[in-house]
Structures are given as structure tokens and as C-alpha cells.
Structure prediction request, 151 residues.
Amino acid sequence: MSIPSSIKVVRILTPPFVLAVLIVIMHLIPVSNADPALWLSKFHIDKIVHGLVFALLSLSMSVAFTKLQLFPYKIPVLMMVILVSCTGFGTILEIVQGELIVGRTADFLDIVADCVGSALAFVAFRGLYGIFPGQIPADVLISNPRISSHD
Prediction:
């Protein structure tokens, strides 16, 4: 197993990092009290948003960690690390949001939505690549042939 260059590591880890920063920003923005009669509240759109955003984070982490060959071919370990990381991240953000942000409250169902979204990302990964995280063949690890030919 070759160690990727620092430029490749930065390029590979940029999407999950950017998504994590955006998630933090979304959690810290104060919102006005929404009227419970609104369709947004009735259909719990915020839970769907939580699930989708954490699914994207988990999916980007799955791709990044697989490309970096962290826990190669140890699928349960890699998936558990990603799931626990995303769920822990979401839980910490909910606690901070409930304790420090005026006008925001922590919601246990948001944490559940974060966890479900993170888990569903593994299904999406399987659908996109036909395999689970940790199993991407070496010939598809670098998507840009110009970069991979200079190694």
C-alpha cells in the first residue's frame, strides 16, 4: 500500500471537510419561530434535511476513506467509524445548538435523522459503486488520470 501524497490527501478530504463546515454553519444559524401550522412543520422537513445532509457527509467520508485506503477491506470497521463519527458529530452539534444558540433547541429526533441519513449513505454507496466502502478497486482510486500518471 502506497502512502498518498499530501496534495492527494487534501484533495480527497476536502469534500467531507467542506460539508462538515456547512453543517456546523447550518446548526449555528438562528431561525425565527416557525408557525406550527406551516407545511414545513407538519411534514417535518427539517428531519429530512438532517437526514440528507448527514447522508451526504457520510457518503463523502466513505469515498474519501476508501480512496485513502483506511481500514482496507475491513468493511464493518470502516462503516462503524463513519457512522459513529457522523452520529457523534450530529449529537454534539445538537447539544451546542440547544445550550448556546438563542432561539434554537436540541431535538432528539434530529439526532435520529442524522444517524439514519448516515446509515442510508452506505446503501447509496453500494448503489453507486456496486460495493461497500473499503472495497473500491485500485484502478478507480484516482479519478483524474493526469494526476495518477505523475505518481
User: Anything to note?
Assistant: The mean pLDDT is 81. The chain has one domain: 6-27+39-148. The CA atoms of residues 125 and 131 lie 7 Å apart. The radius of gyration is 18 Å.
